[in-house]
Amino acid sequence: MPNHYFDCTIKPLGDSAIIVQLGEGIDTKIHQKVKSLSEILSRNTFEGLIEFVPAYNNITVYYNPYVIYNSQKGNLSSFEYVSKHIKKLVKQMTINNNESPRLISIPVCYGGEFGPDLEKVANYHNMSTEEVIRIHSESECLVYMLGFAPGFPFMGGMDERISTPRKETPRLSIKPGSVGIAGKQTGIYPLETPGGWQIIGRTPLDLFLPHMSPPTLLQAGDIIRFVPIPSSDYLNYKELRK
Amino acid sequence: MSIRVLHSGLLTTIQDVGRYGSQKYGVIVSGAMDSYSLRLANLLVGNQENEAALEITLFGTTLQFDEDTLLAITGGDFLTTIDGLKAQLWRPILIKKNSILKFHSAIKGSRAYVAFAGGIDIPEIMGSKSTYMRANIGGFKGRALKKGDILSTLDVGEIGNKLIQRLKKEDATWSVDFNNLISFDDNQLIRVLKGTEFNRFDRKSQINFFEKPYTITVQSDRMGYRLDGTPLSLSENFDLLSEGVTFGTVQIPSSGQPIILMADRQTTGGYPKIAQVITADLPSLAQLQPTSTIRFKEVTLAEAENAIYTNEQSIKNIKNAIHYKIFSN
């Protein structure tokens, strides 16, 4: 009997990548599976593997078909070879609940010039800005994946009382460190980019650290808590970093 | 040896084959749009295939050399001159001290590559020299080249030195035949595999995608090609979570107009994927100029893999032929 808990579906993403589907939707249990398979995959690389990208409920595995073709003398197609390897690894998956995730505090200066949409979010919910800040900073958020920009965390777990639709017209430029809300999601912009999220505050922390390994402050699996700070602390922190 | 930028042109960046291994952190791959031309330019000057070179877009770039320099120009058919005389493409060139290399305009194709023997002397960041402009890392100070920039090259290796000795005696009379690898035609049939969400599109869109022509708009860049043609729609709306995408992924946003993800694509995307351009056709796609028209043709995964094997074997054969030219008497 197959163990359905450790089932996966594999679909090609073109001729040089596959998507390993481990479930549907956004769910901490599926996230555990993604995490487990990521760890197994980093310990069981194969010739021709380029890299892999974990997402909410799947992992995309990138490979070089020509290297695989040469390494196994073309008995299987490269797609079949990679799929077979991954299916074997999926069987080794374990869900380890004993390992505690990293807890990371993100200082945020809410409102004012750092959070130009804070009042809009408060008005949308008929709340005071203080209430929005309190609810946002009381949520514990899980980083499901990084994507969109280097170090940008896709998080779940924000209190739905402050979920707010995206802006109708995206801003052309959002400052690095900006903390935003889009629907049920909250996130932090690591680089200056265009974006449509409601910006409620800004952190002085750098999320993208190109000369460090790993190059990002946050990793998939981290638990985030936002800590409100006054603008004087924000400026002091920025001054210290210079 | 150093190279002075007299004119930056439209967009000139340093690119290698890409920054792999950090996509899980959201760090994009970047790298040459047309990787075959980049790799062949390197092979022509005795470099490793994955060394960094200049990627020149459409027109305007002008460079001056402060010493004799071994280089090769590949990619699109640009009107290119050295001190006013037409330069030879797809072969090694020993350019003389103080000479001026100028890219006037693209006749066919949209990107030219210039590789220098030894490679470009810039640090690798996360394993690559490719320019990632938005994050301001890699390449030359993390940005496109500007007038007045001075690039340095690294020491020339054994193959490069041997080649320099030969070229001092006489210019190369041979060049690389790229015709089996890259097409520079204006209108192309681009081979694709069905995308992971192909079946979520309505019947009419599934047919139109393969039957109607799509134009590459001027809003296309290294990040993505925005196409214009018959709009495509889903049979019913559904929410797709962000997940890994790749070079050549054809996404359909709510406008219904396809976007093909290119070298500077984001690591993840949440739009439905109707198709995926096969790896073997990416360099030809990357060479198309804005306003060109493409049609999509479906192939099987086996055909796509075979096209990769054939092309990689061709590059290997070209590499051997170049070595033969350099080392034979």
TrEMBL record, chain A:
<keyword id="KW-0067">ATP-binding</keyword>
<keyword id="KW-0547">Nucleotide-binding</keyword>
<protein>
    <submittedName>
        <fullName>5-oxoprolinase subunit PxpB</fullName>
        <ecNumber>3.5.2.9</ecNumber>
    </submittedName>
</protein>
<dbReference type="InterPro" id="IPR003833">
    <property type="entry name" value="CT_C_D"/>
</dbReference>
<feature type="domain" description="Carboxyltransferase">
    <location>
        <begin position="8"/>
        <end position="218"/>
    </location>
</feature>
<dbReference type="GO" id="GO:0017168">
    <property type="term" value="F:5-oxoprolinase (ATP-hydrolyzing) activity"/>
</dbReference>
<dbReference type="Pfam" id="PF02682">
    <property type="entry name" value="CT_C_D"/>
</dbReference>
<dbReference type="InterPro" id="IPR029000">
    <property type="entry name" value="Cyclophilin-like_dom_sf"/>
</dbReference>
<dbReference type="InterPro" id="IPR010016">
    <property type="entry name" value="PxpB"/>
</dbReference>
<keyword id="KW-0378">Hydrolase</keyword>
UniProtKB/TrEMBL annotation, chain B:
<dbReference type="InterPro" id="IPR003778">
    <property type="entry name" value="CT_A_B"/>
</dbReference>
<keyword id="KW-0067">ATP-binding</keyword>
<keyword id="KW-0547">Nucleotide-binding</keyword>
<keyword id="KW-0378">Hydrolase</keyword>
<protein>
    <submittedName>
        <fullName>Biotin-dependent carboxyltransferase family protein</fullName>
    </submittedName>
</protein>
<dbReference type="InterPro" id="IPR029000">
    <property type="entry name" value="Cyclophilin-like_dom_sf"/>
</dbReference>
<dbReference type="InterPro" id="IPR052708">
    <property type="entry name" value="PxpC"/>
</dbReference>
<dbReference type="Pfam" id="PF02626">
    <property type="entry name" value="CT_A_B"/>
</dbReference>
<feature type="domain" description="Carboxyltransferase">
    <location>
        <begin position="24"/>
        <end position="314"/>
    </location>
</feature>
